[in-house]
Amino acid sequence: MTMLLIKGSFQVKGTQPDGDTIHFTPDAPGEWDLLRSGGHAVKHDVLGRATLRLDAIDALETHYGAKRVHQPLRFAHAARDELMAWLGFTNVQQGPDETVTAATPDAVPGSVLTSGADVHGRCVALVGRGTDRSISGVDVAVDVDMLRSTANHHLLTAGLVYPTFYRGLLPSLRTELTAATLQARTAPGQGLWPSDATTSGAKVTALSSLTDDVVILPKLFRRLVDYLKLDDNPSLTCFPAYLAGVQDHFTILSTGQRCAGLHSVVEISNGQTLRMTQPPEDLVFDEA
Asked: Which segments of 57-150 does DSSP mark as H helices, in order?
């Protein structure tokens, strides 16, 4: 699998990074134009600074949607802090709205491997740290060894994020990330996994269940938050119908089944408890 390598630097001051989103400025901003045509363009400012979304992982939300709803902050903040520390930031301070007010240094060198942007214009990337002798602005064949040197792999290995795969990721890389996930999940007390209720069952009696107590796949959390905003009644009885209407398109790897809606892998019991019938790493989503 080839991806465009772009060298530059990461910045966090004045931004609201989380465990899978951070800002990056290429050394040569024009290299954004080298990305393949036909997809979404990377949105960036006049200096080239763009928002990155780390490919193949999903961290718990720190501020989702207009009302800035969060998941349990212990794990949301742990993923965010680990990403910044891994890149080389220290003495990071944040305000109550999650904005970084100070960090040392102002920027750290690094690189991204990317094939394009998501529907929001965020560059979807594998993230590397530090400087090396690689040539920027060229397509690179990405293998498992290279993947293991990325923040994406590191955060999965640490058990601080969920795997969330999209069709554009090479199967060999997906297999490696799945192995990292399984290792973290089975390690004693590793990251968020001891608290994970995605497949075991999560009881939701109010929005506060999601913000304070329940640790689940962030994609499922986002769908739940959007559903609960439609009605003050916390019953989940109609949630499968809502998911069918949203129509997330994905494939179940273990069966090869193509699905149009997470209702295909979500069960509701007693109107308040839900669970996914397949683990996150068994799903491959279509890009929006």
From this structure: 73-87, 144-147
